[in-house]
Amino acid sequence: MPKIDKIELLKLALPMKYSFETSFGVVADKQTVLVKLYSGELVGYGEAATFNAPLFNEETVDTCMYVLEKFIAPKIIGKDFATAEEFRATYKNSIKGHNIAKAGAEFAFWNLLALEKNMSLQEMFGGESAEIKVGESIGIKKTIKDTLEEIEERLEEGFTRIKVKIKPNWDYEILKAIRTEWPKIDLMADGNSAYNLREHLDVIRSFDEFGMTMIEQPLADDDIIDHSTLQRLVETPLCLDESIKSVEDARKAIELNACRIINIKPGRVGGGVESIAIHDLCQSRGIGVWGGGMLETGIGRAFNIALASKSNYIYPADMSPFQFFYEEDIVDDSFEVTKKGTVVVRKEAGLGYKVNESKVKKYTTETRVID
Ligand code: OSB
Ligand code: MG
Fold first, then answer.
1. Whose CA is nearest to atom 12 of ligand 1?
2. Nearest alpha-carbon partner for 61 in 15, 23, 98
């Protein structure tokens, strides 16, 4: 029954040690939004993991701050909710889109609920496995050699799957070089919507020779139909990321055979309730899923890890530890990747990680309080 007494919205600027390049641009200056929900003695944290510019979807850190403050906060402040479903029902249909902002609020509520019930996030989400398999998502590099060197390091560290970002003219050659070096590794490529059927069908078909586990989101986010055409023409399974914003999108994609795998990115779909619905639908249709990421801090990752311990998450998650991008995390006990390429799922009640308030403060550039 946590009643929402106070809401704090924090905008954080996290200096990046290494930038991250995809077909949509370079993330070199990362910001994120934290949502803190206060209820009596309890504080629940959530993260609206987006970027400074609308590169991945239409949201940014500033639209998240704005929508959370002006539209979501007034609907939840002073109210009492028994479940996350009840919590999100206050804004789900009355506020269109803005899924990443919604997820920030909903996850903070899950955290509160877990604290109140003295349960772990894993128990709250119905997760099962004690650890999850993880892979790295490797950005577009200056040279093929740089990419191969990073892959070599990751394989030595134990990562079980390698994902490389591709775009037109940074695709066949890099994939060929990786396959020549490592003919057997679990390999996949993410196009982040940079391709279209009219110009790129031949090059996408040429990827079949690499026997990849999947090609993630080659075509536009609103192109479920073209993905369906493409899936008929290529052997490699397609995986949708940007196209899936809801369980309804997932249903349509599955019915049109537009993909054989789905990446569940909790922010993109508006939070945990929708992520679980997509997981369950995919399970009933024989479609395996995996957990995507948005370069979250340890707070956002906590939710991703707990969700990824559910039984139909059968492919490794994108889960680069903070050191791959940031100087430090804002949780003290950030996760580590084991030699087996796994991350252990925390059993502690609540978030499962210790938020370091002085580090949060150090990186906060803007605060808004609603009470
Ligand atoms: O498309 O999967 C993506 C990061 C930012 C934006 C989009 C994507 C990514 C990743 C995940 O590849 C990297 C991570 O969170 O470790
Ligand atoms: Mg992706």
1. 137
2. 98
Dihedral sign computed on CA atoms, order 71, 362, 355, 32: positive
Question: Does this model's pTM top 0.85?
Answer: yes
pLDDT of residue 1 exceeding 80, the answer is no
d(CA 311, CA 174): 33
Beta bridge partners of 2: none
Among residues 133, 167, 245, 265, the one annotated as catalytic is 265
Q: If residue 137 lies in a helix (H) or strand (E), which one and from where to where? A: strand 131-138
Amino acid at 24: F
Q: Specify whether 165 is catalytic.
A: yes
Cα separation, 14 vs 10, whole angstroms: 12
Residue 369 and residue 36: Cα distance in Å, rounded?
9
Calpha distance 315→334 (Å, rounded): 22
| Residue 36 known to be catalytic | no
The pLDDT tens digits of the residues spanning 106-160 come to 999 999 999 999 999 999 999 999 999 999 999 999 999 999 999 999 999 999 9
